[in-house]
Each structure stands twice: as structure tokens, then as C-alpha cells.
Amino acid sequence: MTEISTQAKPEVTGAFLVAALYHFARFDRFEDFQKPLQAFCNVNGIKGTLLIAREGINGTVAGSDDAISGLLTYLRQQPEFEKLEHKESWASKMPFVRMKVKLKKEIVTMGVEDIDPNRIVGTYVQPKDWNALISDPETIVIDTRNDYETAIGIFKGAVDPQTKTFREFPDWVKNNTGLHNKPKIAMYCTGGIRCEKATAFMKEQGFDEVYHLKGGILKYLEEVPAEESLWEGACFVFDERVSVEHGLKEGNHKLCHACRNPITAEEVTSPHFEEGVSCSHCYDSRTEEDRDRYRQRQLQIALAKQRGQKHIGG
After folding, report:
1. Out of 41, 189, 195, 282, which one is annotated catalytic?
2. If we measure between CA atoms, which residue out of 218, 210, 162, 160 comes closest to residue 186?
3. In DSSP terms, which residues pair with 63 in a beta bridge?
4. DSSP secondary structure of 294-307
5. 157: which of 27, 44, 64, 196 lies 20 to 30 Å off by Cα?
6. Region(s) of the chain under CATH 3.30.70.100
7. Whether pLDDT at 14 is above 60
8. pLDDT tens for residues 126-180?
């Protein structure tokens, strides 16, 4: 099923269509598909990252309207991905440096064997119905993302596990017996993929009423009006836009290229912020040798920019 974005294209020359996509399916020939997929993207000027594994495909890419439309058609021509869904947004400039098609053991890494969303998964909840579910006092709402993501935005009243990686999530669940205190568990993530595995895991752990937001935060921000929203803040995205807000408009966050944490306009004014070198999140955890190394990298980025090029390390 194709999801068509209602978001208006930015009124700037060269705006890029961004497609976030994933699909769980038995994909035994994933290794053979890497080179053809990489070649297709290269020829059509598409950039981003696609992960392929025996369990399916996941990633975000950007390019011209025609290029992204062609890629989606190409993917859906593969029998395994015939029902692949995607979400669209726009970027005023190319949000990726290169195109990478990576072979993986998992398309989203939880590190728990035999978790198969094709076999068992939570109940999907449409964005229009999400507010009612998470406002129910009988519901525990869980954000399955990592701490650097939740730091800039979260649903009102949600539990933040404060995980550094998704691999930590299963242990967090096992160590929180209070999750059994209410009958309903509602889970969400950026685009929906982590919740496919998270809800499958929760069902395997004996939780009965497990729900997750279909299309994730991105679909909610696209469809639910800001005046009706229970979302607070911005949504971290894994590209050079850094964050998006209601209507999937580009947010105002920057990325610290030393620690990869999103930073606000206020944090940019911190004495610990130095472009490409440090920010208030990482200053105390880096040595002066680290910062000197980052300064050299930042210098190379600046020199490449002067030449009209884009430094790969940037």
C-alpha cells in the first residue's frame, strides 16, 4: 500500500523528496540484491541508507520525485516487497552525503533471536485514534527510541526507558515489573519499525493488550493537527535535517558532529559548543586531543566547501 504525503513541497529550487520505508518479509536472496539495488540508486542520483537482511528491508533515501518514485516501483516489483509502505517528506537540500546499501543480520537490531513480526505483532493504531488510547488511564505509553531522540520530543505522559541503543530495550522490559500494573501497553517510535519488533517481543513476554502507532511519530505529525496533538517537542530524524515538527516541517535543531546528539539553538550559544568539535552534551567526556582531531576534520570540511565540494566526513 502506497502512502501519499499531503505535505507541500518547499518552494525552493532543488527540493528533495525523502522516503522512509521498511518491510518485514522472508528475503533469502538479500545478499544477491545488494549490488543491483546499489546500482539502481547510483544511476538515479538517490542518496541515503538502505539495510537489507533475511528479515526484510529498512531505510531512508532522498532524491528527485521521479527517482524516488522509480525506486519504490522497483522495490515493489520484488515479490517480497510487493506490499512495502513508505512515508514521504521534503528536504530543502539533499539530506545525505552518499548512498549505502548494507547487508545486515537484522534490519533493526534488537539482538533477540526468533522475534518475527510476520508471526506475532501488536495491534496497529491509526494516528487519528492514538490520542484516545494514550489518554486512557488504563494505558502505559512507552517510547521505544533512544535517549538522544527522546531528549528533543516525546508524547505527553510517555515512559522514557532512557536506552542508549535498541539492544537495551529487552532487558529494560524484563527489569520493569511495573509494566504489568495496567492492562494496556501502547508503544511508538519514529517510523514504526522498532515497534514491530518491540510489540512482538512484548507479546512473547506474556503481555496481552499491546498496541503501537502505525506509521510512527512521522505519520502522526503528518496527519494530526498541531492544535489536537499530544506530541511535545520535535522528532529526531536520521539525516541532515536532524528534526521535523508538525506537518513534517524541518525543525531547528543542529547536530553535534562530535557526539551525534541533536542540539537546540540555545545550546549553540553555550561556551562548550564549537562547530564540529564539541557541545554541552559531550564536552566533559572528550579530551583535548579528541577536540584537536575534530578541529582538523572540521577544517577539511570547510576547505571542501570552499572548493564547492562536500567532505565525506562531514
Report:
1. 189
2. 210
3. 17
4. HHHHHHHHHHHHHT
5. 196
6. 16-103
7. no
8. 999 999 999 999 999 999 999 999 999 999 999 999 999 999 999 999 999 999 9
The CA-based dihedral angle spanning residues 245, 250, 254, 258, taken in that order and rounded to the nearest 10 degrees = 100
* pTM for this entry: 0.86
For the chain, counts of helices (H) and of strands (E) = 9, 15
Count of positions (residues) in the chain: 314
189 annotated active-site:
yes
Q: In the CATH scheme, what is the code of domain 123-233? A: 3.40.250.10
| Contact between residue 198 and residue 161 where contact means Cβ atoms under 8 Å apart | no
Q: Write out the residue limits of the CATH 3.40.250.10 domain(s) in the chain.
A: 123-233
| DSSP letter (8 states) at residue 313 | T
CATH number of 16-103: 3.30.70.100
Q: How many CA atoms lie less than 13 Å away from 33 in the CB half-sphere?
A: 21
Closest CA to 161 of 136, 137, 140: 140
Beta bridge mates, 163: 146
Q: Which residue type does 229 have?
A: S
By mean pLDDT, which of 128-137, 194-203, 274-283, 298-307 is the weakest? 298-307
Cell match 536472496: residue?
29
The residue type of 134 is I
